[in-house]
Amino acid sequence: MANQSYATIGVIIGNRDFFPDKLVAEARTQIIDLFHQLNITPVMLSDADTKLGGVETFSEAQKCAALFKQHADSIEGILVVLPNFGDEKGVAETIKWSGLNVPVLIQAYPDDLGKMDVVNRRDAWCGKISVCNNLYQFGIKYSLTTKHVVSPTDESFIADLKNFLAVCRVVKGMRKVRIGAVGARPGAFNTVRYSEKILQRNGISVTTVDLSEILGNANKLTASDQSVKEKLEKIHAYAATGATPNDRLVQIAKLDVALADFMAANSLDATAIQCWTSLQQNYGCNVCTSMSMMSENMLPSACEVDVTGTLSMYAMQLASGSPSALVDWNNNYADDDTKCVLFHCGNWAKSFLPDITISTAPILGTSVGTENTYGALDGRTPAMPLTYGRISTDDCKGIIKAYIGEGELTNDSLNTFGNRAVAQINNLQGLMHYVCRNGFEHHVVMNASKTAGILKESFENYLGWETYTHG
Would 3 be classed as within a structural domain? Predict the structure, then answer.
């Protein structure tokens, strides 16, 4: 997983007065050192604000809450540190009065079996249970470390903290994401219908635009325009152009300019585009290359106006720090019940396609003319880690739901065209039963990571979405 740091995290160091003071001071130093190593900015009380910078009394909780309020725009999560039993009310009151609605991670120190005397005893094992009990009573959501008690210098805690930072990114990003829906969904694809209202209730905004506006703006541009020349240079630098005629590359560049202008004007994080058949019939090329370039540059773009598909791409991108791709659950792989073929015609980010070439879309070409489908990409995804999943609005239930899981992309032979990959997933047949039984789309999202746990914690615990984790 990519190391995405530079987060700002609020820190609450719990204390209980009849435990040794030195434990709080030591914890504060350890956390500051660890945050420095991981490029995390701490927001925490100083030892001049309260006794050793800890939080125990209501007055100290108010001081810490006020500090968090001052930095509310930058704090992405809260780390609760328990060097001793701690004061459960002080922790809960701090979070409550801060007004922050961010992920919370609870860490508690382990006792040393050889130091169970009054001078060194911590009892944080017990204190953590009490803190969690109070947070539960207050209705505050929180995350747990892999080990119930763990030192901040332990490798498992460092991994937990990095995963927590990813959870913070996902939760923050999903609560304010802005998606552009370009054109109408293909008429034959009821499968990509979704509820804008349910998404908006969850903080997800959708900005729509008629495809004719984008094509109209693209047609106003010429090959001599500087913006088109710059896009054309980026296209040549991005992928081999194969047999694609120069005039079609110019068409692709003009369309890319129009899409970029639309995204900039509306401050969009992602797009879902009407990629067929109006585009080919009325403009004369595919938009796949532009979509691939956007996804590679962390502005995910999904085909067939699959808005919740691109939302899934964005979530996985936030979790992993790497691009995602929208794919079809497309074919069986011979008679291997654990493998299947993932396919699109295709617009996958370059990260998935080391042999990327700009080409045509043969299947689509049978109905709109292959000469009108230049811009589709050809390339095979090699073996790499796989996290897959899908977010969907269930309009009948009025909810957002999701499924996620992990597997592997393999190097098994696959003689076909377009963007393609072979996936191996444990109990794949059971997964397909779940997808079909619960009315999910034929589109799924893949990401070259192992981040299902991060997504589950984000979706289920903090966003309140019904989430199935396969396997």
Answer: no
Secondary structure (DSSP) of 327-372? EEEEEEETTEEEEEEEEESS---GGG-TT-EEE--HHHHHHH-GGG
Is residue 277 reached through a cis peptide bond, with omega within 30 degrees of 0 on the bond before it?
yes
**What phi-psi label fits residue 141: left (phi over 0), alpha (psi between -120 and 50 degrees) or beta?**
beta
pLDDT in tens, 321-371: 999 999 999 999 999 999 999 999 899 999 999 999 999 999 999 999 999
Query: Is the domain of 277 the same as that of 394?
Result: yes
Indicate whether 320 and 459 sit together in one domain.
yes
Pairing verdict, β 143-144 and 104-108: parallel
- Same domain? For 45 and 165 the reply is yes
Number of domains in the chain: 2
Q: Using the 3D structure, point to which of 120, 140, 174 is the last residue of a domain.
A: 174
According to the model, what pLDDT value does residue 1 have? Answer: 40
Asked whether residue 54 falls in the same domain as residue 188, the answer is no
Residue of 170, 293, 143 lying closest to 233 (CA atoms): 293
Task: Give the DSSP letter of residue 185.
Answer: P
β-bridge partners, 359: 376
pTM of the model: 0.96
| Domain's final residue, options 140, 174, 208 | 174
pLDDT, one tens digit per residue, over 381-414 is 999 999 999 999 999 999 999 999 999 999 999 9
Question: Which amino acid is residue 71, in one-letter code?
Answer: H
Annotate 196-242 with DSSP letters as a single string: HHHHHHTT-EEEEE-HHHHHHHHHT--TTSHHHHHHHHHHHHHSB-T
> In which domain, by residue range, is 288 found?
178-469
What's the CA angle centered on 103, arms 99 and 106, to 5 degrees?
A: 105
User: Looking at the domain assignment, is residue 347 inside a domain?
Assistant: yes
